């Protein structure tokens, strides 16, 4: 039988491996030191032979570093300024958009209780009815010095309608004086194609006679509710029907 060969212990293998690594490390270190020494000698020789060049190179290098640093600060400041301008532009655009879009009036509801509204809210509700039924350029002009016009709009067929709103109780009927004051301005001052007086109450007989004579549409509580519910004519439609029937005709003699 052949005697088995001697085997090296793991400890010896690790020892040989560590010696090799250490040797390689010192060789690499020596190469690095030699290269650094050679570079230092070259730099020293260049300084001795061309000191002006070295000075120029040093100045250029320092200036380059300072320029890079300043450029970085400039770029960072420019980015911040651009971000601030972008934010300001967005805020300005939002403000302009908010100014360009008029505030939405509350939508007209079929079940609205006009008696529970204030006079100002009643005018807004009438304006909302006009918008709902296709009128354009709806404008609230009621207030001091309105000369009888509370709501002005353009009907779907292109006519200018001027509406006066009277938020009265059941016991306070619209009289002929109210109609006369409105009739004196609705056509001549406001240049209405259609003039209407809308009330939460009713009209006296003299008021209706004056309105029929002047061509003013009277919308009482019942007619207003029908307009709101969509079961009755709009004021501009009632004006067309009344014009077709003949405003201001004298009653036929019996």
Describe the structure.
This protein is an alpha/beta fold. The chain has seven helices and five strands; from the N terminus they run H-H-H-E-E-E-H-E-H-E-H-H. Strands 1-2-3-4-5 form a five-stranded mixed sheet, sandwiched between helices. The longest helix is centred in the first third of the chain and has 50 residues, at 51-100. The radius of gyration is 47 Å and the shape is rod-shaped. The N and C termini lie far apart (157 Å).
How are the strands ordered across the major sheet?
Answer: 1-2-3-4-5
- What is the overall silhouette? rod-shaped
**What is the oligomeric state here?**
single chain
Helix/strand structural class: alpha/beta
Please work out how many helical segments DSSP would assign.
7
Span between termini: 157 Å
Strand content: 5-15%
**How many strands, what sense, and barrel or not for the largest sheet?**
5 strands, mixed
H/E series: HHHEEEHEHEHH
Give me the count of strands: 5
| Residues in helix, % | 55-70%
How confident is the prediction overall: mean pLDDT? Answer: 79
Cα-atom radius of gyration: 47 Å
Uncertain parts: 248-254
